[in-house]
Amino acid sequence: AGSKGFGFFVVNVDLTEEGIEHVDDIIQLVFQYLAMLRNEGPQKWVFDECRDLNAMQFRFKDKERPQGYVCGLAGHLHDYPLEEVLTGGYLLTEWKPELISEILEYLVPERIRILTLAK
Fold first, then answer.
1. How crowded is residue 91: how many other Cβ atoms within 10 Å of its Cβ?
2. Long-range contacts for 10-14 (Cβ within 8 Å, ≥24 apart)?
3. Can you tell me the distance from the alpha carbon of 3 to that of 58, in angstroms, rounded to the nearest whole number?
4. Cα 112 off chain centre by
5. Which of 9, 53, 64, 65: disulfide with 69, CB 3.0–4.6 Å?
6. Which residue has the higher pLDDT, 75 or 52?
7. What is the separation of C-alpha 29 from the centre of its chain, rounded to a whole number of angstroms?
8. Residue in 90, 94, 68 with CA at minimum distance from that of residue 79
């Protein structure tokens, strides 16, 4: 979450005890993967798959308590036009490869905050 027009890119990784000893290696692998995504460019098939999965999730959504549902919709009024309030969190309608590329340019080691938690 964040202010309007602002968000976070979060990567959560569950590690074994041995994995905790290799956090720096894992962070390096994440940034290697992001670099690969930048180099290969946005892939339309990934968007299509996400679009289809989100549509299915919306279509077969579990019932919610009415009060919680209405409060959630009221919050969406700040983020979506009225006609998209019900579907805005689910349905993907526009393929924007240039926007994906722009965002990937921000996902670099110089712009990160790392939090490591262990039990």
1. 14
2. none
3. 25
4. 16
5. 64
6. 52
7. 18
8. 90
